[in-house]
Design a protein that fits this description.
It contains eleven helices and eight strands. Helix 2 links the parallel strand 2 and strand 3. By secondary structure, the protein is α/β, with parallel strands linked by helices.
Length: 339
């Protein structure tokens, strides 16, 4: 396959109705740039025939590819699969529901040309219910405070990346909400620009307010991993040393009282001092063990589970990807993804 300048990754879940118009809009935007491009629809376990729809569209547009995951793994897994399959020097991600406007793709790419590695869209005028807009504002404000990465719309799925930046990000669980934070933690330069946001024409949103609770928990994980991934001893050991020191001071104070003839056996302070010492030593030990795990992990290469999640692909002709589209002569069940 000839070199590709731009890859557009489209995570989709039951977006059969929205995809035809969206892909046509993407094609117009990319053709206007005069670059070699590909569009990769990652079907995250749809049940409405999304992949079959893309297969039909791919017969008319050779730039279109499809990746179908074996089941619904979530948006993070879909993006990781898309990043793994994309070969473009620049990568754009856009949701498959059609609310993002592909006409903004040139503006996102222009921002990359200004020395930025990840450009996130900012839906300044959101076409969503008021409750969702309010929850999003609180979420983005708190994320900025916790991480130091100032974004108005951290979770916007419309983003542009340099290829090496996108492929360096470990996207798993539900960390797709924090891709700018993950990139910033690795030293990539991140920014945002306003983009157009359109009302949803097909289907209904699958996101509820509970996702913000999950997002708050994921934020704790992102902050912890970003700051202490390679030095957990500094966190757990530091807290352990403080607790142990306070416990020893309490014990020393009680020892002086006991030498002075006072009874300390029934004092709650005695139990507090012993508890602090025990917990502090446990945390210090846990930090040492965690540090040993980090060292051991860096000495081994972790297994890549991304290809194993892919059931079949359409339109690809590259080693390492299972090809089971029309004319391949192999069914999805017969395909064995390359490791």
């Amino acid at each position: 396959m000839s070199s590709v300048d731009l890859s557009v990754v489209i995570p989709a879940l039951n977006e059969r109705e929205a995809l035809p118009d969206l892909i046509e809009e993407i094609a117009r935007a990319c053709d206007s740039l005069g670059v070699r491009w590909e569009a990769i629809v990652v079907d995250d376990g749809s049940t409405d025939g999304t992949t079959e729809q893309v297969e039909e569209l791919a017969s008319l547009r050779p730039e279109l590819r499809a990746v179908r995951l074996r089941r619904n793994f979530g948006k993070s897994a879909a993006l990781a699969a898309g990043f793994g399959c994309a070969v473009g020097e620049r990568i754009v991600t856009i949701d498959g529901d059609g609310q993002d406007d592909p006409a903004d793709i040139p503006a996102l790419l222009a921002a990359l040309d200004n020395g930025i590695d990840l450009v996130s869209g900012w839906k300044r005028e959101r076409r969503d219910p008021a409750s969702r807009r309010l929850a999003s504002r609180v979420f983005n404000w708190w994320t900025t405070k916790m991480t130091g990465v100032a974004m108005h719309d951290m979770n916007c799925g419309f983003k542009a990346y340099r290829g090496e930046c996108a492929r360096s990000l470990e996207v798993y669980g539900e960390l797709h909400r924090f891709l700018p934070v993950l990139a910033d933690q690795q030293g990539w330069r991140v920014s945002e620009i306003p983009v157009n946001h359109r009302p949803r024409r097909f289907g209904s949103s699958r996101f509820g307010l509970e996702r913000y609770l999950r997002g708050a928990l994921d934020l704790v994980a992102v902050v912890f991993v970003g700051r202490y991934e390679y030095r957990p001893l500094h966190l757990f050991g530091g807290i352990g040393v403080i607790l142990t020191a306070v416990g020893l001071l309490i014990s020393a104070y009680l020892t002086i009282l006991r030498i002075s003839g006072e009874s300390i056996g029934s004092r709650p302070l005695l139990f507090l001092g012993v508890l602090l010492i025990v917990v502090g030593i446990q945390l210090l030990t846990f930090g040492l063990l965690a540090q040993m795990v980090v060292v051991a992990r860096r000495d081994r290469s972790e297994a890549d589970l991304g290809p194993a999640r892919i059931e079949r692909t359409v339109g690809f002709d590259r080693p390492g990807l299972p090809a089971t589209g029309p004319g391949s002569g192999r069914s999805a069940r017969e395909t064995t993804p390359a490791g």
